[in-house]
Amino acid sequence: MSAATVPPVKTLPDAQTVTAVRHWTDALFSFRVSRPQSLRFKSGQFVMIGLMGDNGKPLLRAYSIASPAWDEELEFYSIKVPDGPLTSKLQHIQPGDEIILRPKPVGTLVHDALLPGKRVWFLATGTGIAPFASLMREPETYEKFDEVVMMHTCRTVAELEYGRELVESLKDDPLIGEMVGDKLKYYPTATREPFHHTGRITENLRSGKVFEDLGLTPMSPGTDRAMVCGSLAFNKDVMEVLESFGLREGANSEPREYVVEKAFVGDGV
Ligand code: FAD
Ligand code: A2P
Predict the structure, then answer these.
(1) Do 66 and 175 sit in the same domain of this protein?
(2) What does pTM read for this prediction?
(3) Can you tell me where the transmembrane regions are (predicted)?
(4) Do the interacting molecules here have an ipTM over 0.90?
């Protein structure tokens, strides 16, 4: 083996190399890493990633894989928590650095956990869009559903940009652009700044505004499926709304009309 073909020395356990980093706001960034050859996952799942802690032990946190299952690399979309044990360090990674990635994907936001339907709703706040960044790029999403509605809500417009750019790029994606066609309806809202659409996801579903704005029929258990990812409070409130439309929570072991995952574990939860 010549020097040029010697693979880089992995210094961390389960090390993967950072290939790209992009900062979206002072509290949000995304990054891409090499993909372990053995890693198989379903779009929508999460893995444990992290860095070596000061005590010499791995400091790991759950992260949704934001890239689709077919991608050669893995993408993640991250918060920067001031003084957060992991993200106060992780936010400084650069291409060429290594992170730890435990190749054991898990999670409920997968197609297998939903019964077949006509329309699927992806409902996310904040970094909760990460699993849907994967699922919006997953061919199975468009094979299984005639319509896909991505509702994403953040406090500010700048926090919506990662999702906006991703949705915008899908049209021209050589791999899935044609499948996406006009099946994907994107409904971003900001709650604390003026924007063309405002209000919480829960309010826009309850009032029927989103159905009106997008020219869609209201949700019904016969046709609609949903996947939810946000704070604990958001998940709880949106589940109530989905139940009011007659949808029931499912799981991998028992597929039903909707599934839920926490985007993070809040203080004291
Ligand atoms: P921590 O000590 O873990 O968190 C400190 C506090 O920061 C928390 O108590 C909470 O109040 C707040 N917080 C943590 N994460 C977030 C967040 N994402 N949005 C808003 N507030 C937050 N985080 C991501 O950034 N991207 C992901 O794709 C992602 N996927 C997750 C999937 C699952 C199933 C779970 C349970 C969590 C996920 N998280 C994700 C959260 C992640 O595991 C860490 O909590 C986060 O990276 C912060 O780590 P930390 O060590 O800096 O701070
Ligand atoms: P709002 O600005 O009205 O609180 P956060 O940063 O607090 O996690 O919130 C992210 C986004 O989710 C914000 O737009 C916020 O709206 C919205 N949100 C927070 N809690 C809920 C909830 N319980 N139900 C619906 N939307 C929520």
Answers:
(1) no
(2) 0.95
(3) none
(4) yes
